[in-house]
Protein: Acetyl-coenzyme A synthetase
Organism: Cupriavidus necator
Amino acid sequence: MKMIESHLQEHRIFLPPSEFSSVAAVRGMDAYHALCEEAERDYEGFWARHAHELLHWHKPFTKVLDESNAPFYTWFEDGELNASYNCLDRNLQNGNADKVAIVFEADDGTVTRFTYRELHARVCRFANGLKTRGIKKGDRVVIYMPMSVECVVAMQACARLGATHSVVFGGFSAKSLHERITDVGAVALITADEQMRGGKALSLKAIADDALALGGCEAVENVIVYCRTGGNVGWTEGRDHWMQDLCANQPDTCEAEPVSAEHPLFVLYTSGSTGKPKGVQHSTGGYLLWARMTMKWTFDIKPDDIFWCTADIGWVTGHTYIAYGPLAAGATQVLFEGIPTYPDAGRFWDMIARHKVNIFYTAPTAIRALIKAAEADENIHPKQYDLSSLRLLGTAGEPINPEAWMWYHTNVGGGRCPVADTFWQTETGGHMIAPLPGATSLVPGSCTLPLPGIMAAIVDETGQEVPHGNGGILVIKRPWPSMIRTIWGDPARFKKSYFPEELGGKLYLAGDGSIRDKDTAYFTIMGRIDDVLNVSGHRMGTMEIESALVSNPLVAEAAVVGRPDDTTGEAICAFVVLKRARPEGDESHRIAAELRSWVGREIGPIAKPKEIRFGDNLPKTRSGKIMRRLLRSLAKGEHITQDISTLENPGILEQLSQS
Ligand code: WTA
């Protein structure tokens, strides 16, 4: 706990601009407090009211929250609805049929627009196509696709049939994909021939084939392939089908299958503190409700807004704020295939200007990388672009340092756009602690206050709340509709990870340290308190990387820690002991390179350690436990001032301190 100390030295404060507040969904702090009080007074009534107002129910619910089997909470369980119906059909009925749903910009700059009518027809044709392959309610379908309209279509088509999708980020390796396919028990895999990123074609189908060849995937009888580039692919007759062929001649309507509000809409894998990723299972009703509500509250979405979330659809941000939230809100959104630095690092600003984006949502890592680029090259500085369409900015996925916040606010937002720093997680389904831009005053580096209905608090190791100004463990005191329902296939791990007995068994443990400001009660997130790293906004378990390293025949032992990095937030630093003598000079570079590509193949390029240091041993206690805190200090290049009296082999520190 002592490690979590107040770093809040930030005194700059930004009031919501009056032009913004006067037309916002929530106008001012009185309106915010009124919503919070409503939730306090009648928690179930509060959520029921929004669920009735914002979603279409095929069969209305009679019960709101069921806590009888805590922590396996259920919401609106006897109600029936369909997520795809709510995202598409409702927009055809309420006058949005010819409104643009998605402005797709390809890697090479080609722009294609899809109206709600067109998107609906595509989803229906594909859902009908999936039906011809026998895919039905309750099946699991893994999606391994590029950023594309086809990926949204695939997710929505699954939702339409009541099949549970599990999207795997396109940067994961065959092995990671295989692990997810078998864990979730998929019957089908939807992929693409290749993906285009930064002018390069990268294979997906070949990796998918490798994954399926690893064995244990016999249940996957169908592989459906979106033809993105027309590049060469291997083909298994009978199993593989082109997406385009499957959709040809299919009717452009398809009845949406009503499912229970608790029906799993998707499973999304994320890293935890063990070597095995967790399949976070989300519901249909509660999840969609919060996706819709946060579009209104945090993003203040208006009918004419152009919304752009730059996250990859393989992460939760792309699920909630691309595939579901904006569509459920009837919004127009930009969907971008490529990367922010191609053809140059002005791409985001150029796209905002060309598409007249009003609400822009990106990751702190992207902002930090673009700051560096803009400082190096005046021509791609945001001031060179007309960004006057912007009215709101957002960030998510990792802490944003106040300097980056200020740069974003000044140079991208022209000083006039509120910046919503949104704290949330794969497990929470949507924003948890975030400003309401028409109400909340902003402090750079703080995600400010919990959204109405979210009962966030900071506690000590025994579950007791700590006074404001003291650091502690971030928890959520009451269940909320879009929370994780369980870990797929592992309810015991769900209970242990998120509702630990040490905290009394009733508090949701986010896994982050946090502190509230003494005066404003604002939250600042201090980072993970478990063995999870956040590299460029990607969650990585240190154990996962360690198991990948030790599976290499050269490696005897490995320990992975994070160290602060100016651009990526944290960087991966691995300490490795080989089965042979410690390598030096060229040999050490060669083996480090070999191990980095090994990790890339085992997990994916995002998990490659930035630095690998070799030692004869690792610093251990007499009982053989690796002293990670020492490794963290070594990785940072710190002089060790900590107590090392329990260290078995103090001599090792000097060896490992040399990078
Ligand atoms: C971190 C991403 C500080 C945090 C939506 C959390 C943040 C993890 C913020 C979840 C923020 C997310 N400020 N830290 N605004 N948002 N985090 O599951 O450590 O990929 O636990 O969900 O990212 O990452 P995940």
